[in-house]
TrEMBL record:
Name of the molecule in the record: Serine/threonine-protein phosphatase PGAM5, mitochondrial
Keywords, ordered alphabetically: Hydrolase, Membrane, Mitochondrion, Mitochondrion outer membrane, Necrosis
Gene (UniProt): Pgam5
Enzyme class: hydrolase
Compartments (UniProt record): Mitochondrion outer membrane
Source organism of the structure: Setophaga kirtlandii
Amino acid sequence: RREPLALINLKKKNEETGEEELASRLDHCKAKATRHIFLIRHSQYHLDGRADKDRTLTPLGREQAELTGRRLASLGLKFDQIIHSSMTRATETTEIISKHLPGVKKISTDLLREGAPIEPDPPVSHWKPEAVATVSLCPQQYYEDGARIEAAFRNFIHRADAKQEEDSYEIFVCHANVIRYIVCRALQFPPEGWLRLSLNNGSITHLVIRPNGRVALRALGDTGFMPPDKITRT
């Protein structure tokens, strides 16, 4: 609902100035800047942790986060913020990455926590998330996680506000399922296809959102900056 026509009350249109007034109000509501969204999947972590606080990064995972941080820093961009999932593995990944981006503020949110966004198509009888052993999913889990992850998409993935004057560069550190779902939604692909995409640990996915609302995918799950022996997908 950021299309200029959706932001003005057409009933209040000035009858005397007519189309001229409408054009002026529409122009005032138009976005001017481009948003660059960098979606980072957390690094490798201990799969055997019983609770989230126990699922900390492995030594290799910490190396991966260092490499991702260096890569982001090497881009020479002025990052505005890092928004990250409140889960342990995403928080630890963020802390390591942020060392390479001094001064960039960090914001934690529960909206980006891992989950089951929507029942995948083709259907699967069992779903194997990276964090745990294979588990059966009941429809209720899709309803609960799906509503939250959809809320994350609507809250974070949109064209720039009309007041934003300059292009922005934002980092989101979260999870494979969240990123896969967001990519499908942002590109207007059937979101049920999210499970067909695969992302490495510490990978970078780059979305560009133009002022007119059009979205382009510049990179999906990029880990070309990592040596082959450091790449994992667990």
